[in-house]
Write a structure and sequence with these properties.
With 258 residues, the protein is an alpha+beta fold. The protein has helices spanning 123-135, 153-165, 187-194, 213-227, 242-257; strands spanning 23-28, 32-33, 39-41, 49-52, 62-67, 76-78, 87-89, 92-94, 96-98, 106-108, 115-116, 118-120, 136-138, 143-149, 171-176, 179-185, 228-231, 234-237. A 4-stranded antiparallel sheet has the order 13-14-16-15. The radius of gyration is 25 Å and the shape is globular. The model is unreliable at 28-34, 39-45 and 58-72 (pLDDT under 50).
């Protein structure tokens, strides 16, 4: 667990209203008596664990010592979930070539390039996701792309390097007037980015609210780099998608409250 823990001591309050899924850090306890019935220990910690209010069947046997305001979870994308079939070798996944007729063998597709199976949403990947939210799209079954201004060359270089590190090395770079378009080829990542939808329906998948504060701010930063502008000393962003506007707003609100 890597975040702040807030301790609450409540006296004389019969009920504490809290959402059902709010995480609580719980220690079990046991009252121990000597032979003369004198109480010598009222707390015997067990292994601390996170539970929800709905999971507490007997509050008399638990000591709830810390409602947790924010949990920084490590979110990992399993790229294999976005493949019809795969073969894994050395923590990388490859597409599968199947035999014909009586040949039922499975082997790595010679056209397939191995990519890392598990990709953690750290601050760098979160920045990319925010930038995709602003400038990204999918244009077919196996390609995803990022639009941008020629002044954002440093971002394009970062994208090329980051995707190359996980195994996606095939890309196309196009420049027209002051704009540029960077297109990558990868079936599983195209399917992953398709979950963001497009146009007025574009949005962040449901995992976005589970990101840690650092990753949340990185995601917002990526979005601002793509769609933000500086107006009279203030950063301004605009989107045709109501979901994007609310997600960016609440991401900043979560960061402020934490």
């Amino acid at each position: 667990f890597n975040s702040d823990i807030y301790r609450m001591e409540i006296r004389g309050l019969p009920d504490l209203l809290i959402t059902d899924n709010h995480p609580l850090l719980v220690n079990t306890y046991k009252i121990i008596y000597r032979e003369n019935k004198q109480k010598v220990c009222h707390l015997k910690p067990g292994e601390p664990s996170f539970v929800s209010i709905r999971d507490l069947s007997d509050v008399k046997k638990t000591l709830v010592n810390s409602p947790v305001i924010n949990i920084s979870q490590s979110i990992t994308v399993d790229i294999a979930n976005y493949m019809d079939d795969f073969i894994e070798q050395n923590s990388k996944v490859y597409g599968v070539h199947r035999g014909y007729g009586s040949d039922t063998s499975r082997r790595i597709n010679p056209k397939s390039v191995g990519i890392c199976r598990f990709v953690s949403i750290d601050s760098e990947f979160a920045f990319i996701l925010g930038y995709y939210l602003a400038e990204g799209s999918t244009n077919c079954s196996h390609q995803f792309q990022f639009a941008g201004h020629e002044r954002e060359q440093a971002v394009a270089d970062f994208l090329i390097e980051w995707f190359a590190n996980i195994g996606i090395t095939k890309y196309r770079f196009e420049i027209k007037d002051n704009s540029r378009r960077l297109t990558f080829s990868s079936v599983p990542f195209t399917r992953f980015f398709s979950e963001f939808d497009k146009s007025v329906n574009k949005h962040l998948p449901e995992w976005w609210y589970k990101l840690g504060i650092k990753e949340t701010l990185s995601l917002v930063c990526g979005y601002i780099v793509g769609d933000g502008s500086l107006v009279k000393g203030n950063i301004r962003c605009g989107s045709i998608s109501p979901s994007i506007a609310s997600h960016v707003f609440f991401s900043l609100l979560i960061a402020l409250l934490s």
